[in-house]
């Protein structure tokens, strides 16, 4: 049995046999610090027992020299990106790898520049924190045999490359269902650009909750925006200027929700007495907003950690059990939602 296991062993099996993590095994194979003497001896003994695995891992480790992981990000702003980066940093802290961050600023030329630099220089793996539809990089990375993990959400579970996301559709459904349970029937939604999979998933959950409650979907209450606070401002003004404005607003993320708050304050509309507001992501500042924001929690730190763990396994030559990991979203109820007021909204 031991011989059969050795022929198909991976770094994960060595780690299991030695009672340590794959990161610790990687450190020993690569002569990195941070492993106790007795643990190092135990791991080497296991490696000697599985000589095939040791040779395979050593060949893989000799091939790479950089000990760098590239993170490609859309922009260096926003609590969503920062939350995921915290998880990435935590997971890499004990791994011996350094992180190189590149922001494309939604510019295709910048994206191509980063790709040229990547191919000219050395990297052990890539984390792509970009909207799913922008990951045209995947084909090139696969062709060059560069391990990578896409951080985002998708409706295509059969895609050929590893990715991690969260239950966006469920988040959209849960937020809308909660507002309906409070008595709201006129619920405005501010989306991201609707060519993005995540935006369509959030809107689909919103529609499904309304339809299940027997509430007609009013296109006038659906506003397409971007990721930013300023767009929350712009779209909230549009919603409030409708002949029949909403009694609640569901923002596509917490930054948009902050823009919603700004406009409501300017117009002397109280949250939640006059207008209920719900966000998405549960970034760090939402609990300090006034009033604290009810929102959909995305496990951002855990997404970052899991993405790194997936990537390190790919770098080690291991096969993932699944190409796509989806973590659960959940509703966080605070103080920005209440039953709808009776009567019209206050005038400016």
Q: Topology, please?
A:
Blueprint: H1 2-7, H2 11-18, H3 22-29, H4 37-49, H5 51-63, E1 68-73, H6 79-92, E2 98-103, H7 108-120, E3 125-129, H8 137-143, E4 148-151, E5 163-166, H9 168-181, E6 187-191, H10 197-212, E7 222-224, H11 229-240, E8 248-251, H12 254-266, E9 276-281, E10 294-297, H13 300-315, E11 324-327, E12 330-332
Helix pairs in contact: 2-3, 2-4, 6-13, 9-10, 11-12
Compute the number of helices.
Answer: 13
What CATH first level of the largest domain would be assigned?
Answer: Alpha Beta
CATH architecture of the largest domain: 3-Layer(aba) Sandwich
Which sheet architecture does the biggest sheet show? 6 strands, parallel
Brief sketch in words of this structure:
With 348 residues, this protein is an alpha/beta fold. The chain has helices at residues 2-7, 11-18, 22-29, 37-49, 51-63, 79-92, 108-120, 137-143, 168-181, 197-212, 229-240, 254-266, 300-315; strands spanning 68-73, 98-103, 125-129, 148-151, 163-166, 187-191, 222-224, 248-251, 276-281, 294-297, 324-327, 330-332.
């Amino acid at each position: 049995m031991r011989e059969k296991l050795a022929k198909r062993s991976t770094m994960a099996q060595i780690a299991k046999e030695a009672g340590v993590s794959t990161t610790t095994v990687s450190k020993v194979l690569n002569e990195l610090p941070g492993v106790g003497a007795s643990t190092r001896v135990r791991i080497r003994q296991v490696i000697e027992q599985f000589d095939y695995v040791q040779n395979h891992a050593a060949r893989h480790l000799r091939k790479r020299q950089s000990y760098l992981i590239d993170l490609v990000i859309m922009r260096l702003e926003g609590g969503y990106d920062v939350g995921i980066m915290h998880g990435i940093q935590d997971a890499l802290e004990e791994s011996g790898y350094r992180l190189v961050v590149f922001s494309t600023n939604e510019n295709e030329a910048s994206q191509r520049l980063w790709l040229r630099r990547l191919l000219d220089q050395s990297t052990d793996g890539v984390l792509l924190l970009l909207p799913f539809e922008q990951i045209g990089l995947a084909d090139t990375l696969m062709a060059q045999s560069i391990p990578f993990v896409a951080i985002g959400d998708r409706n295509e579970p059969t895609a050929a490359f590893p990715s991690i996301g969260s239950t966006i559709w469920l988040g959209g459904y849960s937020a809308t269902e909660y507002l309906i349970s409070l008595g709201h029937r006129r619920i405005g939604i501010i989306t991201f650009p609707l060519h993005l999979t995540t935006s369509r998933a959030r809107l689909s959950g919103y529609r499904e909750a309304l339809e299940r409650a027997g509430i007609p979907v009013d296109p006038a209450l659906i506003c397409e925006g971007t990721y930013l606070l300023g767009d929350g401002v712009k779209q909230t003004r549009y919603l409030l200027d409708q002949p029949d404005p909403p009694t609640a607003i569901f923002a596509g993320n917490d930054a948009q929700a902050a823009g919603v708050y700004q406009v409501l304050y300017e117009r002397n509309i109280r949250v939640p007495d006059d207008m209920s507001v719900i966000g998405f992501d549960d970034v760090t500042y939402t609990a300090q907003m006034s009033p604290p924001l009810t929102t959909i929690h995305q496990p951002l730190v855990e997404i970052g950690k899991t993405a790194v763990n997936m990537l390190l396994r790919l770098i080690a030559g291991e096969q993932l059990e699944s190409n796509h990991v989806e973590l659960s979203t959940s509703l966080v109820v605070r103080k920005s939602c209440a039953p709808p007021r009776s009567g019209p909204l206050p005038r400016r």
